[in-house]
Amino acid sequence: MTQSGSTRLYYRVALKLMALALVLFILQAMVRAFFSNPETDIRLALGVDLSALAPGEMQRVDWAGREVVVLRRSPAMDAADAAHADRLYDPDSRLSNQPRAARNPGRSLVPGYFIAYGQGTDLSCPLDLVSPEAAAEAGWGGGFTDRCRGSRYDYAGRVYDGQPARRNLEVPAYRVEGSRVILGD
Fold first, then answer.
1. Residue 93 sits in the same domain as residue 34
2. How far apart, in whole angstroms, are the C-alpha atoms of residue 171 and residue 116?
């Protein structure tokens, strides 16, 4: 065999070994994905104390790289939601992403509280809370607005009709333990 022939043979063998290693790596990743056990997967959990919130007060927490808002609704907020329910795009939350237990008018596992990701649903812009009194001047019941395009949501995170956003605010998975909410269940 000549020098160039042995060099070509060396490169062919090296290339085939690299291709084989790549195929084995991909197969190993696929097998792990198919046979992973969700019970043993590590989930980040965060506890939020609900008793620290006064009616009408909102708390922002960072969980799993996203902002989550926790709102304790006041009676005025509940009244505003009820008065403007006919102006909502998806009042029954049929197009929404939320836990099954939160498919109710308040979209919450805990009556009087609302927990959602703190971003609007069209451009993921941060949300601001608008009181019923401040919103009355603009002719709506109040709730959340996103900072980019001004999409409006009520205090249950349901989007008003005619807004740039077409989906209700996303509600994360959580569970209730006494006066604490544990995000990440």
1. no
2. 4
Q: Is the pLDDT of residue 38 over 60?
A: no
Same domain, yes or no, for 37 and 50? no
What CA–CA distance (Å, rounded) separates 55 from 183?
21
pLDDT of 41 above 80: no
What are residue 15's phi and psi, to 5 degrees? -65, -40
The CATH number assigned to the domain holding 123 equals: 2.102.10.10
Q: Which two tokens stand for residue 158?
A: 């349901």
Tokens matching residue 60: 């922002």
Q: Global pTM?
A: 0.73
The per-residue pLDDT for range 127-170, each reduced to its tens digit, is 999 999 888 888 888 999 999 999 999 999 999 999 999 999 99
Same domain, 13 and 96: no
Eight-state DSSP code of residue 51:
G
Give the residue numbers spanning the domain of 35.
1-41
- Alpha-carbon distance 70 to 79, whole Å? 19
Number of domains within the chain: 2
Pairing of strands 46-49, 180-183: antiparallel
